[in-house]
Amino acid sequence: MIVESKDKVYFSKEFVEVDGHRTGLFIESTDFANPVLLFLHGGPGYPEYALIKNAGLRWEEEFTVCYLEQRGTGISYNASTQGELTLEQMIADTISVVEYVKQKYNKEKVYLMGHSWGSLLGSIIASRYPHLFHAYIGVGQFGRFFESNRDTYQFLLETAINNGDDKAEKDIRSVTFDEGFYQNKEYRRILNRYVDKYGGGVKRAGYTQWQGMKELLSCKKYTLKERLNIVKGVFTSYQALVETMNQADATLLASEFEIPVYIMNGKHDYQTSFNEAKRFYEKLKAPLKRFYTFEKSAHSPFIDEEEKFIQIIKHDIIHTNGK
């Protein structure tokens, strides 16, 4: 079903069947002649449609934006059909969706954007299947999980010290950061408590995990069951894929591209660290590559610095690579 809203943004909620499982996506555009962009969310298991819409990003004026909800969460959650959640399955699902939107909108190629965990998935796909894409855009680019989290732990400790917050410093020091960090509940606790507070989380300021979940659970594009499935998906997807993330090095899995690559990272990003994004960029080979530093942003520069983000999209990416 397609609905035209009062501001002339066309919306549809669609499903693509892959091996007996329905993978869902939201699609928005002001003009279906626009280039198509497939957006891969982070998490794993954390859809971002509600986050982006509540922030007011109007990129559907530049793209026909397809928000893929990955197998195992939101409108793509079905415990009886989804099977094991693996990186290779996510790749296969994404390729099926790419072929679907190419045919639907009569496009030879689409743009691919990955955010956070989605940037690990997206960079691998763009490297393997360049013929499908105009370009790859990584935002909050994934590099290496351990090294990124080591940067985060050091950031939290240094910020607590610089703020003279003895209680926070003691709390952070009480948690040992080591190779088992991703299974350490106490480490997850200090992340949840301090990353957003210190300005290194989803947004540079004024955003909490609770707010993010509230946005998801109040989004009217989801049925009640789908909202509950988001909650299930956040936990089950992370548990299923965290070992894969911990072992992954994006510079090895996606080292060479035959298409342009654009990396956009917030200087204050401590969910996927700026250092790791820069390392990924410096090591990759591509016919054209650009790195954009968003000085006032944390993990979501498309929200923290929307105007700069849109200008890059319009003038550097679409203008260079076409529709």
Give structural notes.
The structure is a single chain. The chain has 323 residues and is an alpha/beta fold. It folds into two domains: 2-146 and 203-321, Alpha/Beta hydrolase fold, catalytic domain (Rossmann fold, 3-Layer(aba) Sandwich); 147-194, no CATH class. The protein contains twelve helices and nine strands. A nine-stranded mixed sheet has the order 1-2-3-5-4-6-7-8-9, with helices on both faces. Helix 4 runs antiparallel to helix 5 (166-173). The longest helix has 24 residues, at 224-247.
Tell me the layout of helices and strands:
Layout: E1 2-4, E2 10-18, E3 21-29, E4 36-40, H1 49-55, E5 64-68, H2 87-104, E6 110-115, H3 117-128, E7 133-139, H4 145-162, H5 166-173, H6 185-194, H7 209-218, H8 224-247, H9 250-253, E8 261-266, H10 274-283, E9 289-294, H11 301-304, H12 306-321
Parallel strand pairs: 4-5, 4-6, 6-7, 7-8, 8-9
Antiparallel strand pairs: 1-2, 2-3, 3-5
Helix pairs in contact: 2-3, 4-5, 7-8
Keywords: Hydrolase
Protein name: Alpha/beta hydrolase
Distance between the termini: 25 Å
Instruction: Tell me the strand percentage band.
Output: 15-25%
Q: What summary fits the major beta sheet? A: 9 strands, mixed
- Spatial sequence of strands, sheet with the most strands: 1-2-3-5-4-6-7-8-9
Rg, Å, rounded? 19 Å
Low-confidence stretches: 1-6
Class by helix and strand content? alpha/beta
Whole-number tally of structural domains: 2
Q: Which CATH architecture of the largest domain would you pick?
A: 3-Layer(aba) Sandwich
For the record, the CATH class of the largest domain is: Alpha Beta
